[in-house]
User: Which sequence fits this backbone?
């Protein structure tokens, strides 16, 4: 999709489609309920998009999240049914954008499907930045957790590439509410990870929100429908409905990261279903 929000041109770019286990996608929600919303494949996996956002305003070229990239091992690629090649770079090139033109890379959090595309292997099999001219930003709290190497977080983060980011670039560590560039601010939502950030674009009195994995798709609009990857599920249950209520009230455009059909929509409150998507666009 391509949409204009005041001075911003927002395009979704493909960070790579993949599949996640249905139980992981919907946490405590029983399968006999979620299977009517999202159909699992024979291995019980749900098809997930990976819509990253390219935002341009004539001064900056900002990329939010980088997908999973092109360097994971064949076994992982099969397990998650990942696309071959470098989906993000290929998707950018279809928009006529070269990696060297991106001046800001901003991460919602540092799980493999959001940070993997930020690095690639060079000819000598060393990790190199995919976007060599970009300032890379992540929340301070997320960085502390992802680089901690705590055993209880070890499987959540691809530690080798997370740690290599610090060697490859001078990371900018964001606080809650910090302006990334004019017209783009961070919003600490926690829940999915302790330092998880959503992002808000503002221009001409309009707002667009990239909620990230605190609400990865329109399947997740209900309080109790959240990923079992969430490290702080109670914070998701508290903070997500708050963010969604604000989005409904302010008529924000929501940019859904992992939704296989809805790329962008608005949301409204609903007595029975809490929130529902309206003005849905299936392509951006
Ligand atoms: Zn994700």
Assistant:
């Amino acid at each position: 999709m391509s949409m204009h929000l005041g001075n911003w041109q927002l395009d979704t770019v493909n960070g790579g489609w993949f599949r996640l286990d249905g139980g992981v996608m919907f946490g405590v929600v029983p399968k006999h309920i979620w299977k009517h919303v999202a159909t699992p494949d024979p291995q019980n996996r749900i098809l997930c998009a990976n819509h990253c956002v390219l935002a341009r305003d004539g001064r900056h070229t900002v990329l939010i999240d980088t997908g999973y990239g092109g360097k994971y091992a064949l076994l992982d690629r099969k397990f998650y049914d990942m696309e071959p090649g470098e989906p993000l770079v290929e998707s950018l090139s279809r928009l006529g954008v070269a990696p060297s033109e991106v001046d800001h890379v901003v991460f919602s959090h540092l799980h493999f499907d959001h940070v993997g595309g930020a690095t690639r292997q060079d000819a000598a099999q060393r990790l190199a930045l995919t976007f060599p001219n970009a300032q890379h930003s992540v929340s301070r709290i997320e960085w502390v957790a992802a680089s901690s190497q705590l055993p209880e977080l070890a499987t959540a983060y691809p530690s080798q590439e997370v740690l290599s980011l610090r060697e490859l670039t001078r990371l900018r560590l964001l606080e809650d509410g910090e302006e990334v560039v004019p017209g783009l601010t961070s919003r600490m939502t926690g829940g999915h990870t302790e330092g998880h950030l959503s992002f808000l674009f503002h221009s001409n009195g309009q707002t667009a929100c990239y909620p990230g994995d605190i609400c990865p798709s329109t399947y997740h609009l209900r309080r109790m429908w959240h990923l079992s990857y969430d490290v702080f599920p109670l914070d998701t249950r508290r903070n997500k409905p708050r963010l969604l209520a604000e989005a409904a009230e302010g008529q924000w455009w929501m940019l859904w990261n992992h939704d296989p059909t809805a790329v962008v929509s608005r949301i409204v409150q609903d007595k029975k279903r809490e929130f529902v998507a309206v003005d849905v666009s299936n392509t951006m």
Observations:
- The longest strand covers residues 274-281.
- The domain at 2-281 is CATH 3.60.15.10 (Metallo-beta-lactamase; Chain A).
- The pocket of zinc ion is lined by residues 111, 113-114, 213, 216, 258 (CB under 6 Å).
- The first helix runs from residue 22 to 26.
